[in-house]
Recover the amino acids of this structure.
């Protein structure tokens, strides 16, 4: 796993060069999403949903509804939508949205399978925490499946703490009910 990427920071973005699977290099940028990224974000969500293990979203993905929800999230000022782009293609996304608790933001993220383990999750989360602090958010909250060791390690490394174990919290389309762990990061 690549540990120390050299990120060059711009105004609201950061970029670096990453080694690709075929031993080439790709310019990767972490930046705020725009409407032009929505189709790419839906492709990432669809591919990760197809793995059937890591996120609550399942196939078939309602692209119109999810696209509209992303469009609204990008437009609003009380949340953040970030993308990781490799050579112009979206390979990861992270969304922060206002939760029912004032000044607490919900968090969801996904990296395309071929781009995992190379520091992009960490870079997206670093950028999201920076954005949340700039919005004076008090905390970030998320739900993660207990079998998702990579995600739990990433969140724990960033200071998220487990808050509750939610038994049979998520109903899957096959009728199974999966447990979740609720995690929270205090920012104040
Ligand atoms: C979880 C996820 C976002 C991590 O992103 P990533 O780009 O692979 O992670 P990084 O390469 O930035 O690694 C950051 C940290 O995550 C943890 N991590 C990443 N992959 C791991 C693995 N396979 N096993 C254990 N820990 C892992 C480590 O703590 C790592 O830090 P380290 O390199 O200093 O040890 C990514 O695996 C993913 O998108 N998975 C599918 C979707 C998903 O699970 N979304 C979250 C739902 S709650």
């Amino acid at each position: 796993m690549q540990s120390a990427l050299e990120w060059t920071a711009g105004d609201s973005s950061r970029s670096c060069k990453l080694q690709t699977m075929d031993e080439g290099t790709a310019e990767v940028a972490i930046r705020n999403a725009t409407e032009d990224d929505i189709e790419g974000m839906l492709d990432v969500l669809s591919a990760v949903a197809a793995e059937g293990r890591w996120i609550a979203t399942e196939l078939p993905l309602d692209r119109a509804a999810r696209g509209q929800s992303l469009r609204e999230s990008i437009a609003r000022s009380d949340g953040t939508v970030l993308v990781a782009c490799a050579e112009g293609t979206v390979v990861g996304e992270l969304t922060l949205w206002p939760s029912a608790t004032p000044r607490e933001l919900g968090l969801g993220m996904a990296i395309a399978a071929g781009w995992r383990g190379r520091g992009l999750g960490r870079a997206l989360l670093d950028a999201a925490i920076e954005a949340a602090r700039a919005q004076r958010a008090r905390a970030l909250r998320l739900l993660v499946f207990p079998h998702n060791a990579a995600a739990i390690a990433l969140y724990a490394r960033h200071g998220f703490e487990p808050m509750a174990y939610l038994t049979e919290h998520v109903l899957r389309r096959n009728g199974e009910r999966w447990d979740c762990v609720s995690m929270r990061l205090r920012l104040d």
User: Anything to note?
Assistant: The chain has one domain: 8-140.
